Amino acid sequence: MTMKITKLKYIGLLGLAITLNSCNDVDIDSPPIDNVDIESSIANLASATAAVDGLYDLMSRRDYYGRELMVTPEVASDNILVSPSNSGRYLTQYQYSVLPTNGSVTNVWNGIYQNINSANSILKFQGNITDATPAQLNEVLGHAYAVRGMAHFDLVRTFSFPFNTTDASVAPGADGNGGHLGVPLLLEFGQERHAPRQTVLAVYNQVIDDLTKALTLLPTTVYPSNSKLNRYGVQAILAKVYLYKGDYPKAYTTANNLVNSGAYSLGTNASYMSNWDGSMEQDVILQLVSSTNDNNGFDALGSIYIDRGDAGNGGYGDLIPTSDITSLYATGDVRNNWFRVDGGVTFNFKFPLAWTNNIPVLRLSEVYLNLAEAAARGGGSATVGQNALNAIVQRANPTAPATTSTGTALLAEVMLERRKELAFEGHRLYDLVRWQQDIVRGQVASPSTISTITYPNPEMIWPIPQNEIDANDSINENNVGY
């Protein structure tokens, strides 16, 4: 029998070389560089710091947070419809016709695993960093653990049904406790063995372990432009992981500790719109920085939503907000200013500079909403949850009444506010699926567009890429429905 050569191994061998080239236009499909001495690539603190910078640069690429993981969860749900004059992008995601052979599926899978292997390279060759102080070395390692944990979490929520899934017809082994298949765990650089899929439970356990280690290693320092994770950023991710896992007491405690730390500010109603003008100065915990000489160009996040940004950069304007979402904002809600009408078409200007817009990955607003949801689900004080929700609602619309709801009524209000505040930031599909809700589109691009996707539709998650199945002896079957 012919042995398959795992794609994940190939990615691992190139991961560090890609990481050290900190530039958004790296060709991820470039051929192997056989003469690269991986071990000597991390030789001292300077090269290790460059490798850390590369982790965040990889995260900002089109096939990760640069666009794909921000856009697909929106266009595959009910916030976005494809413009009649679109250029052909995101049609398969919108129409639920994604296949295991789709380039977007393969590129997301490969791109995130590149980030994981780049983090693993730092961990493996940490012994070479002999010129660092203990604090400096801890900081480098903290970034590696944090990014590795975050990347595995992003993979498992994209390619597997949520932790609390109980329907084994769409997720064999589902037991409400992560018993169904997740994604491969890559925990060593250049991993030689063929990596099998682990259970969702195993993936979550590893994610939490990595993030917990990062908490002990990273400083509380806020990096320039909030461009890297610090200890508070890891807390924000952990609160989100616990929420997705359904561990509401830990989600509540972790989010509440971060809110009470005072490390970040939500900002005010008066400053809200200016805060979205390219680079966030308030309400941001982690943003991926774009500049005039280092950006994704026409592949930038803002460019898919608008045909010309406020900085004069071009775009596609392929994806426009549905009336479902725009109608949710009351008169007096400052977020109405995200939407601009041009030629009779409403465009989404949440990322108004197009090419040079920074990408907000973690915001304090999300932490407040995570806290409110965890409280509404019994994880902690209902009063604290109400206050957290009120802070978001009344910042956007100061005349909005404060909530006094508890339990399921409070939860419904939190769900609505999550949709409104986090719109177009890559949350909507993940939220609907973990809430086990149908996707109901009140406005569609054409009569042939699927208007209702009933939970649990197998295509609410992505397939494992076909070339990974072909190459990896330990993965022989795809997700149900593919």
How would you describe this protein?
The protein is mainly alpha-helical and 482 residues long. It is 44% helix and 7% strand. The chain contains 18 helices and ten strands. It has helices at 7-20, 38-41, 45-59, 68-75, 91-95, 103-124, 134-159, 200-217, 231-245, 248-261, 272-275, 301-305, 323-326, 364-376, 382-396, 407-421, 428-434, 466-471, and strands at 80-82, 181-184, 197-199, 284-288, 319-321, 339-342, 345-348, 359-363, 439-440, 452-453. The protein has a two-stranded antiparallel sheet with strand order 1-5. Strands 2-3 form a two-stranded antiparallel sheet. Strands 4-8 form a two-stranded antiparallel sheet. A hairpin with a 2-residue loop joins β6 and β7. α9 packs antiparallel against α10 (248-261). The radius of gyration is 21 Å and the shape is globular. The protein starts with 6 loop residues before the first helix and ends in an 11-residue tail after the last helix.
Main attributes of the structure:
single chain, 482 residues, mainly alpha, two-stranded antiparallel sheet, 18 helices, disordered N terminus
The total of helices stands at 18
Distance between the termini: 26 Å
Unreliable stretches, pLDDT < 50, 5 or more residues? 1-6, 9-15, 17-37
Largest sheet composition: 2 strands, antiparallel
**Can you count the beta strands?**
10
**Shape type:** globular
Beta-strand fraction estimate: 5-15%
Mean pLDDT: 92
What pattern of helices and strands is seen along the backbone?
A: HHHHEHHHEEHHHHEHEHEEEHHHHEEH
Structural class: mainly alpha
Q: Tell me the Rg in angstroms.
A: 21 Å
- Proportion of residues in helical segments: 40-55%
- Could you give the order of strands across the largest sheet? 1-5
